[in-house]
Amino acid sequence: MPRTAHVTPTCCDNCQRYRLVYLKFNFEDIKNGSFKAIKPHWVALGVQGGQAVTVYAVACPSCGNLTPEIQERQHTGRKICVPDKECQNCQTCTKKLPECNCFPPEYAWEPATPKPAMGGRFKQKKE
Questions:
Q1: Max alpha carbon distance in the chain (Å)?
Q2: 42 Rama class: left (phi>0) / alpha (psi -120 to 50) / beta
Q3: Residues with Cβ within 8 Å of residue 57, at least 6 apart in sequence
Q4: N or C: more exposed end of the chain, with fewer CB within 10 A?
Q5: In the chain, domain spans
């Protein structure tokens, strides 16, 4: 699987460059339910008891902006890994997950485009 294909918010350069916050699936949910019905979550690396852990992220640690909503990507142009219910094999290329060269499942999602606030710095069209 391409290891550099992390989906990050577009809030700041540091978040994208260092992947401070990124999308991640909880694979326990995939084992218990339908893959298509599950959305990934924004996570960040944290430390607990001297060990690195992933924690749910609600804001970017660099700029402080809230994490955006996510939406399904319309056209990926890439083969996306779809794990089976046992999380052993990829249903797209039929290889074992460690040998899979498809893009990670999170790549099927992207940050939603924020809607401009009315009356903010975005001007409304005059008709």
A1: 60
A2: beta
A3: 21, 42, 43, 44, 67
A4: C
A5: 13-111
